[in-house]
Specification:
mainly alpha
Length: 190
């Protein structure tokens, strides 16, 4: 009789399947490492932007190029806001002792999916004033020297490429958010 119960309990087609807690813990830890690694790369990129843009802003302001100086300063401020948002919205959540591994992993996936879906607001948005300021300042500076068509073609192409890059970043993040949402559904179904 005991062997029959063990056979039923272990059967592949049993109604209830059990997940080994260690497996969930390993998946959760791997996911947290991936999030931490991604954030460290983003922080390094942000630091590089600040290190380059802050002195550039000071230089432009010191030589009387106020528009470019202010635009570069806005780039620094936008980057700092992005880094703060990254920390607040997209860092791995701390484990709580009262929470089981599965619930923690689901919460982590949901948090990241939510952050990725909102990238246009908290990641791209703060960078736009500085980027558009640079292009706008260059366009205004050229306005008195060349015709409008030349300004449009010369500045329009790089601006279009910059905006296309931002759109690509948004698309990648929305795609990643959908993938995480599917993982949440799979974890909830398990």
């Amino acid at each position: 009789m005991t062997n029959d119960l063990q056979h039923i309990w272990r059967a592949d087609d049993a109604e209830n399947s059990f997940t080994i807690p260690e497996s969930l813990m390993n998946r959760s830890s791997a996911f947290e490492r991936k999030v931490r690694r991604r954030n460290l790369i983003e922080y390094a990129a942000g630091a590089l932007i600040v290190v380059v843009a802050a002195p550039t802003a000071v230089f432009f302001l010191s030589v009387g190029m106020v528009g470019l100086g202010v635009s570069m300063a806005l780039m620094v401020v936008g980057t700092v806001i992005v880094m703060w948002n990254l920390h607040q919205r997209a860092s791995a959540q701390q484990r709580r002792p009262e929470e089981d591994c599965r619930s923690h992993l689901i919460a982590q996936h949901r948090r990241q999916a939510d952050a990725l879906r909102k990238v246009p607001l908290w990641y791209i948005g703060p960078l736009l004033p500085g980027v558009l300021g640079v292009y706008g300042t260059v366009a205004l500076k050229a306005a008195g020297q060349v015709d409008a068509w030349e300004i449009l073609t010369e500045i329009g192409r790089p601006l279009g490429l910059t905006l296309a890059f931002f759109a690509f970043v948004i698309w990648l993040n929305l795609r990643a958010a959908r993938a995480l949402e599917k993982k949440v559904e799979e974890l909830e179904a398990a």
